[in-house]
Amino acid sequence: MKAKQTKEFFDALNYITTEKGVQPDSLIKKLENAIILAVKKQYGKVEKIDVVIDPKKLNFNVSFSKLIVQNIKNPANEILLEDALKIRSDAKLGEYVKIYVDAKKIGRLAAQAAKQQIMQGIREIERENVIEKIGDKIGRILTVKVEMLDPVFGNVIFKIDDSEVILFKNQQLINDNFSVGDLVKVYAIELDSSSSGSLIKISRTHPNFVKGLFELEVPEIEEGKVKINKVARQAGIRTKIAVSCEDENIDAVGCCIGSKGTRIESVVEELNGEKIDIINYSEDEKEFVKAALAPAEVKFVEIKEVKGLEKVAYVGVLSSQISLAIGASGLNVKLAAMLVGFKIDVNSSDGLSKEEFKKIAQKKFDERINKYTQNAEEKKELKTKEEIDEEEDIHALEVEKMLREAEKNAK
């Protein structure tokens, strides 16, 4: 490459590394790879390609080496001795001779391919640099400013460290309403290093968004005195949080609620009125199920399990408590099940002793398990857990509806 062209090349290299914040070594590596591809495109299956880019010495050379042989079998990588002597006077059989490439001879097509590779490399390096800067924000609540609103898709665009980040419509609460300039809290879920769009995934519907808000509001959580064990959420409607504390002198639930409810009110306000139930976590599964179904009062809990197949908590409540236990559209029992990690089946316990309820629970569980295995000989389709869950949930909602109608008629 001529001196003027060499200077222009390194001036451009210096500009890119300075303006784009790209490390010179990373860019040079990308350039070398791009030029190697260009040489291969122009000269065929050349194997030993050498690219030297030295910004300090302003040195830029491209070459490939061929093995000196008596008879050529591989033209792309071998050369006759007589031709090698024209390049290097002391050339010998069995050695390699280096052939320098004139940048002009790489060809327009190859040069274009190299340019594309270089630009792609620059974008990748820029992206890696940005990811490195924002990586420490993952798993945290961020307060960001609304830069732009997308009226077509309903997305909201923010900027984090000069990088565009998108809060997609499906990650917003149903009653979120933003304006340009608003300061908004979001939860940083994870890096999205493969995407061509936003570099970081953010959300206001993720269960950890609620967890993060409590971490901001409750010093005891930040200090590690109170622990949020589990979160179950129907974003924008209701959340259940299970908390615990090893210190018996500290009321974990009370810490999260705050004096006169100030702490939980701040979280609810950020969530536009989303209802939040805070309960005590327990290693005792029966006690945990009882707490998870709050505000309903639970009389009996029987947990039945076939390891590796199914686990169900059969819960007995008074008829007057069934509506509370199930909740509107089945949401209370659904969130409780998410919190404890297995299905909850709500039943009336009116007039039943503990032993009688145990028998009912066992019978229902046996029937449920049989649905997985019965009819195999008749080759009928077996129902999935999800289908059985749906059948039982529909039945539970029908019971709730009948109770509501009965209460209405009684009035």
Q: Please, could you describe this protein's structure?
A:
With 411 residues, this protein is of the alpha+beta class. It has 4 domains: 3-133, N Utilization Substance Protein A, Chain:P, domain 4 (2-Layer Sandwich), CATH 3.30.1480.10; 138-205, OB fold (Dihydrolipoamide Acetyltransferase, E2P); 219-281, GMP Synthetase, Chain A, domain 3 (2-Layer Sandwich), CATH 3.30.300; 286-411, K homology (KH) domain (GMP Synthetase, Chain A, domain 3, 2-Layer Sandwich), CATH 3.30.300. Helix content is 42%, strand content 24%. The chain contains 13 helices and 15 strands. The protein has helices spanning 3-19, 24-43, 81-87, 108-134, 207-217, 219-222, 252-257, 262-270, 285-292, 319-326, 331-340, 354-373, 385-410; strands spanning 48-54, 59-69, 78-80, 96-100, 141-149, 156-160, 163-167, 183-191, 200-203, 227-234, 238-244, 275-280, 300-306, 310-317, 343-348. The chain has a 5-stranded antiparallel sheet with strand order 7-6-5-8-9. It is elongated, with a radius of gyration of 34 Å. The chain starts with a helix and ends with a helix. The model has no long low-confidence stretch (mean pLDDT 83).
SSE arrangement:
Layout: H1 3-19, H2 24-43, E1 48-54, E2 59-69, E3 78-80, H3 81-87, E4 96-100, H4 108-134, E5 141-149, E6 156-160, E7 163-167, E8 183-191, E9 200-203, H5 207-217, H6 219-222, E10 227-234, E11 238-244, H7 252-257, H8 262-270, E12 275-280, H9 285-292, E13 300-306, E14 310-317, H10 319-326, H11 331-340, E15 343-348, H12 354-373, H13 385-410
Parallel strand pairs: 2-3, 11-12, 14-15
Antiparallel strand pairs: 1-2, 2-4, 5-6, 5-8, 6-7, 8-9, 10-11, 13-14
Helix pairs in contact: 2-4, 5-8, 9-11, 10-13
